[in-house]
C-alpha cells in the first residue's frame, strides 16, 4: 500500500499518515492481523522524524485501530462491535457532526449529505470487495 | 608488474569516473534534483556529455603519458610508485573539479527555468516494500569470520614452527618486504585486522538494511526496482568482498606458516587475481545498479513532483538530514551508498574499524 505525504501542506504529517493508514484498511489494502512497518523503517523510508511516525501510531492505537505490541510492532486490530456508549462511537459522532455541520452551514442540502455518505461508503467498499 | 597494477587501477578508475553521469538515476543531475519531465533537456544532456569528454580525455592523456614514461625512462621503483599513486588522485581531482563546475551550472539552470517550482511536492512510501527486500541476512557474514577463527587456531597450533620474523607487508612481486619480530600477538595481527574488516561488513549490511527504502512519487516502479537492486547487490558485493579478503589473508598467513609452500609464481599471481576480481565485481555492481529500472517509462502525474531534498545535500554530495533515521542513503553522484552525516552512529561505524585497525597495526 502506497502512502502519499505532502510535507508543505497545512495538515501535519502525522495526521496525513494516520488518515491514509485508516483509509488503506477501509479499502482492504491491509487486513486485521497485518503488521505496519516499524517506526524506524517507515520514518527512514519517508525521510521524516521518528517522532512523527510514533505520534501517528499512538494516535491509531488510541482510536482502537492498531495494537502496539512491544518488540513485535504495530498490528491491525480486528473490527469489534462498537456500542453507543463506547468512546470510539463518541469520537466518530464528533467528527461526523463537525463535518455535517460545516456542510449544512455552507448550504449543502440534507439529501446531498446523505447521498455523499452513501457514495463514500460505496467507494470504500468497492475496492475492498475486489481484493 | 608494479607498473601494470598501478596502470590497471588508474585505468579502471578513469572508466568509472567517465561513466558516472550515465549510471546515476536520471532525476538527479550533478547532485541537483530535476523534475522527471525536464531530465531530457538539451542543456543537461550537454553537461553530462561535456563532463564525460573532459574526464576521459584527461585520463587518456595521463594514462598514455604514464605508460610511455614508465617504458622509456626506466624510472626507479620508488619514483614509479609515487607517480602511479598520484595518477588516480589526479583523475579524481579533475572529475571533482568538473563536478563542482557542472553542479553550479545545473543549479543555475534549475533556478533560471524555475523547474518544479509550481508542482505539489510529495513524499511516498510503500508499506509492503520491505517484504521484497533481498539483502543477505547478517549470519551469512559469520561464515568468513569462522574461517578466520579457524586460521587463528591453526596459527596457534603451528606457533613453534613460525619464522622468527613475521611479514607485515608484501611488495608488488608478491614477496614480503617488511617484518616484525615473532610474538604471539604479531603472529595473528593480520588475522585480527581481517576480523575487524569482516565485522565492519556485517555492521554495514545491518545498518543498510535498517536504512530507508526511498521511493520516487513520479517514478514509483522504477525507483522501487533501483532501490531494491542497489540494496541486494550492495549486500552481495560486500559478502563476496569479505570472502575474497578472507581467502587472500588466509593464503598469506599460510605462506608465512609454511615458508616455501607456494612458489614465487603463485605468490605473484594470487594478489593480482584478487585485485582483478574486486575491480571486475565493482564494474558488474555499477552496471547492474546503474541500469536497474531505467527502462521503465515515466509515470509522472501532472503538477506532482518529488519532495526536493537538495537542501539536505551539501554541494550535492554530502547528505545532512537529522530528521531521517537512515544511516546509509543512495549516493547522488556515483553508484552505491553514502552516509547521512547528521547521524553520529554513521561516523562510529566508519571510523571505529579504522581506529581499531590502526591500534592493531601500531600496538602489536
From TrEMBL, chain A:
Keyword Metal-binding: no
Residues annotated as transmembrane: none
Domain HTH gntR-type: 11-79
Pfam families: GntR
Keywords: DNA-binding, Transcription, Transcription regulation
InterPro entries the record matches: Tscrpt_reg_HTH_GntR, WH-like_DNA-bd_sf, WH_DNA-bd_sf
SUPFAM superfamilies: Winged helix' DNA-binding domain
PANTHER family on file: GNTR-FAMILY TRANSCRIPTIONAL REGULATOR (PTHR38445:SF12), HTH-TYPE TRANSCRIPTIONAL REPRESSOR YTRA (PTHR38445)
Record-given protein name: GntR family transcriptional regulator
Organism: Mesobacillus maritimus
TrEMBL record, chain B:
DUF1648 domain span: 147-189
Family matches, as PANTHER family: IMMUNITY PROTEIN SDPI (PTHR37810), MEMBRANE PROTEIN (PTHR37810:SF9)
Keyword Kinase: no
A Pfam family reported for this protein in Swiss-Prot or TrEMBL: DUF5808
Keywords (A to Z) from UniProt: Membrane, Transmembrane, Transmembrane helix
Residue ranges annotated for the DUF5808 domain, each copy included: 322-347
Name of this protein: DUF1648 domain-containing protein
Lineage of producing organism: Bacteria, Bacillati, Bacillota, Bacilli, Bacillales
Keyword Lipoprotein: no
Transmembrane segments: 6-24, 51-69, 81-102, 138-157, 185-204, 233-254, 266-287, 346-363
Amino acid at each position: 500500500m502506497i502512502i502519499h505525504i505532502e510535507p508543505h501542506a497545512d495538515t501535519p504529517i502525522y495526521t496525513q499518515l494516520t488518515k491514509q493508514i485508516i483509509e488503506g484498511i477501509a479499502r482492504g489494502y491491509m487486513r486485521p492481523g497485518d503488521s505496519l512497518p516499524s517506526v524506524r523503517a517507515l520514518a527512514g523510508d519517508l525521510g521524516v522524524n521518528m517522532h512523527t511516525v510514533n505520534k501517528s501510531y499512538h494516535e491509531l492505537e488510541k482510536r482502537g485501530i492498531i495494537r502496539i505490541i512491544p518488540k513485535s510492532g504495530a498490528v491491525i486490530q480486528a473490527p469489534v462491535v462498537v456500542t453507543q456508549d463506547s468512546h470510539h462511537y463518541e469520537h466518530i459522532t464528533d467528527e461526523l457532526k463537525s463535518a455535517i455541520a460545516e456542510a449544512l452551514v455552507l448550504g449543502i442540502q440534507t439529501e446531498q449529505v446523505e447521498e455523499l455518505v452513501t457514495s463514500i461508503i460505496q467507494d470504500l467498499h468497492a475496492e475492498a470487495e475486489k481484493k | 608488474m608494479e607498473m601494470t597494477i598501478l596502470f590497471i587501477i588508474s585505468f579502471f578508475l578513469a572508466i568509472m569516473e567517465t561513466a558516472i553521469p550515465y549510471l546515476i538515476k536520471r532525476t538527479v543531475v550533478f547532485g541537483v534534483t530535476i523534475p522527471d519531465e525536464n531530465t531530457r533537456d538539451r542543456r543537461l544532456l550537454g553537461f553530462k556529455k561535456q563532463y564525460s569528454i573532459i574526464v576521459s580525455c584527461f585520463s587518456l592523456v595521463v594514462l598514455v603519458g604514464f605508460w610511455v614514461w614508465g617504458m622509456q625512462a626506466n624510472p626507479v621503483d620508488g619514483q614509479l610508485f609515487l607517480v602511479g599513486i598520484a595518477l588516480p588522485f589526479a583523475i579524481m581531482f579533475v572529475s571533482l573539479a568538473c563536478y563542482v563546475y557542472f553542479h553550479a551550472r545545473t543549479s543555475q539552470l534549475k533556478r533560471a527555468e524555475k523547474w518544479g517550482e509550481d508542482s505539489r511536492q510529495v513524499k511516498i512510501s510503500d508499506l509492503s516494500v520491505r517484504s521484497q527486500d533481498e539483502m543477505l541476512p547478517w549470519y551469512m557474514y559469520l561464515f568468513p569470520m569462522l574461517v578466520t577463527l579457524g586460521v587463528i587456531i591453526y596459527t596457534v597450533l603451528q606457533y613453534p614452527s613460525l619464522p622468527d620474523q613475521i611479514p607485515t607487508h608484501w611488495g608488488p612481486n608478491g614477496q614480503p618486504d617488511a617484518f616484525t619480530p615473532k610474538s604471539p600477538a604479531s603472529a595473528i595481527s593480520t588475522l585480527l585486522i581481517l576480523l575487524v574488516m569482516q565485522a565492519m561488513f556485517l555492521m554495514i549490511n545491518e545498518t543498510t538494511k535498517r536504512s530507508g527504502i526511498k521511493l520516487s512519487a513520479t517514478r514509483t516502479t522504477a525507483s522501487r526496482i533501483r532501490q531494491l537492486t542497489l540494496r541486494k547487490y550492495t549486500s552481495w558485493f560486500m559478502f563476496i568482498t569479505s570472502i575474497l579478503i578472507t581467502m587472500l589473508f588466509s593464503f598469506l598467513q599460510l605462506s608465512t606458516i609454511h615458508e616455501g609452500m607456494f612458489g614465487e609464481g603463485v605468490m605473484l599471481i594470487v594478489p593480482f587475481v584478487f585485485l582483478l576480481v574486486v575491480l571486475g565485481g565493482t564494474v558488474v555492481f555499477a552496471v547492474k545498479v546503474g541500469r536497474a529500472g531505467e527502462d521503465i517509462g515515466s509515470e509522472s502525474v501532472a503538477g506532482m513532483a518529488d519532495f526536493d531534498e537538495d537542501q539536505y545535500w551539501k554541494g550535492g554530495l554530502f547528505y545532512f538530514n537529522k530528521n531521517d533515521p537512515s544511516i546509509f542513503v543512495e549516493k547522488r553522484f556515483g553508484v552505491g551508498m553514502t552516509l547521512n552525516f547528521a547521524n553520529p552512529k554513521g561516523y562510529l561505524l566508519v571510523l571505529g574499524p579504522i581506529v581499531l585497525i590502526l591500534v592493531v597495526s601500531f600496538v602489536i
